[in-house]
Amino acid sequence: MEHQAIELNRARKPYDPAYDPVVAPHPGHGRDYAPTYWIGTAGEPPADDGPVTADMDADVVVVGSGYTGLSCAIHLAREHGIKAVVLEANGVAWGCSTRNGGQAQISAGRLKRSQWIERWGVNVAKKLHKEIAEGFDLFRALIKEPEIDCLPQDGGHLYIAHREKMMPALEKESKLLNEVFGYPTRILGREEIHRDFVRDEEAKGAMLEPDGMGIHAARLAFGYLKLARKLGAKVHTASPVVGYSQRNGVHYLATPGGTVRARNVAFATAGYTSPGLHPMTKHRLMPVLSNSVVTRPLSDGELEALNFKAKIPLTDTRTLRHYYRLMPDNRVQIGSRSAITGADADNRKHLDLLLAGMHRKFPSLRGIQIDYSWWGWVDVSHDMMPRIFRPDPAQSVFYAMGYGGNGVMYSAQAGRRLAQLVAGKGQGLDLPIFTSALPHHGLLTPFRRIGQRAMYHWYYLKDELI
């Protein structure tokens, strides 16, 4: 079976650059990976269990083999004695988990701590912060497993003000984190950033958070795969769910190779959740494209000119933020917003927009060779926060998604929480992200991309001009 899986990895169908989860019936069937730096430098993916080839029964089926799905399988086995069957449409971690920027931050969703307080009050916000901090502890513990070698670059996260007008809000957030949450952040000035971290020409100041880590995205996912299979999970690739029904408490998940009958189903498909996958996940997310590039390795002289000492994740204060970092092999990675639709994803203007952002920060990199360029879908929820939830108490269907681009770290904890819910051990999970469904777009669903275009124009004006 392992030999069969490796042969499948070598004979995938071509990568589809125009894939769009809003219109596609499913993410594909055995398609190749996006041409990311992570896939290009991770080596051969480890063996999986190959495609489903006959009808089978399972106690728990996890749909999606990214960070969340594999973490769920790991924790189902390790903490609850349940050996899950994981179904993946293409290759392991084919979606978000091998297309992100490899930045683990102490966050989940897109809201700041001050916005948590505005929405839920200070007591709930403190409990949510504790949950996220516990998630970082779990993440750090997981990547110490011998199966996981993801080249971690630990040491914090630098949140960089790209304009002077952003500093008062950043200083206010830092004070809130320090005084209300007991989380020791520090405000840095432009001179200190340039001296001790990096000569980012846009930087006017920054907030330094003590928790933040760069990782190799594909090596993390492949490590999760090895650990999940070691614990007894089965991970079936090239097995998209192309049909779903339920009868007498049993879920029937049809794949091209056979139907999997399950007592419990957990969806962990994030930005690659197609509208027809399941009624409870339909139109619960706003898939948003993000572009990313990685340069050739920088020479010692080029690194010295940039004074690039920081090995930690960097993000700026734009609404349509840039996320960037220096890789272990001295390449620069940077990512930001991309196209609205999959059909427009390979339009050169989106790459040019991202490169212009890199050049504003690092003018000396103008004209540098780009070795990797890709894009991927981000699972932004309607209210900017994730959910790990059982939508209907009468049905054994669960999901974990909606990280809004901040899922590299928290997906480990989300998978663990998802496993708790599936195993019937969710008592005490009383935070809003565990007790409410992902919001629905409702009547606005057919028009959401029109709204997205308008909001992108407004965000640009607010980020750059107003």
Radius of gyration computed on alpha carbons: 21 Å
Mean of residue pLDDT values = 96
Number of domains: 2
- Tally the beta strands: 19
Outline? globular
Measured by DSSP, the beta-strand proportion falls in 15-25%
CATH superfamily of the largest domain: FAD/NAD(P)-binding domain
Question: CA-to-CA gap between the ends?
Answer: 59 Å
- Please identify the top-level CATH class of the largest domain: Alpha Beta
Tally of separate helices = 13
The parts where pLDDT drops under 50 for at least 5 residues are 1-10
CATH level-3 fold name of the largest domain: FAD/NAD(P)-binding domain
Q: How does CATH name the architecture of the largest domain? A: 3-Layer(bba) Sandwich
- Helical residue percent band: 25-40%
Major beta sheet summary: 8 strands, mixed
**Helix-and-strand structural type:** alpha+beta
What does this structure look like?
By secondary structure, the chain is an alpha+beta fold. The protein has two domains: 2-101 and 217-285 and 383-447, FAD/NAD(P)-binding domain; 152-214 and 287-379, D-Amino Acid Oxidase, subunit A, domain 2 (D-Amino Acid Oxidase, Chain A, domain 2). It has helices at 2-10, 37-41, 67-80, 113-120, 122-142, 167-179, 190-196, 217-230, 300-306, 348-361, 410-422, 432-435, 448-465; strands at 56-63, 85-87, 103-105, 153-154, 157-161, 186-189, 205-209, 212-214, 234-236, 243-247, 250-255, 258-267, 285-295, 314-316, 323-326, 332-337, 370-381, 387-389, 397-401. Strand 1 (56-63), helix 3 and strand 2 (85-87) form a beta-alpha-beta unit.
